[in-house]
Amino acid sequence: MSELRIQPVSLHGFSIEPSFDGSRLAVKLIGTADMRAQRTIASVLRELHTEAMRLGARKVSVDYRDLEFMNSSCFKEFITWLGDVRALPPNDKYLIRFLSDPRKHWQARSLSALSCFAVDVVELDPPQS
What is the value of pTM for the model shown? Predict the structure, then answer.
């Protein structure tokens, strides 16, 4: 089994927990993603993309369920990542599955926008109506 080359991140009030079980690549975001987290998110998403390509991942899970808030600058980093995935040749593309908490309405609105931007690579859980 390949070892994951992404380290966990812990900042004041925000953390990212990456994981790989041999077949599933995932990151969990916890806390508040504000301006202090933007550079870290950008860096981790670049590393995540590199790892997905290296490991030949067909799906990457991003767990927002414990994320309380994300500002627009951090959100833009996800748009950049989705653009990078969409630009890949068809055989290299991977699906990005966003897990959200239906009680946090901002997540549904934000993730719905992401899915419209990259309908071919984004999957929402729970699905948006």
Answer: 0.94
Domain ranges of the chain: 9-125
In whole angstroms, what is the distance from residue 117 CA to residue 47 CA? 22
CATH number belonging to the domain at 9-125, selected among 3.90.228.20, 3.40.50.300, 3.30.750.24, 3.30.2130.10: 3.30.750.24
Digitized pLDDT (tens) for each residue of the chain, 129 residues in all? 578 999 999 999 999 999 998 888 999 999 999 999 999 999 999 999 999 999 999 999 999 999 999 999 999 999 999 999 999 999 999 999 999 999 999 999 999 999 999 999 999 999 876
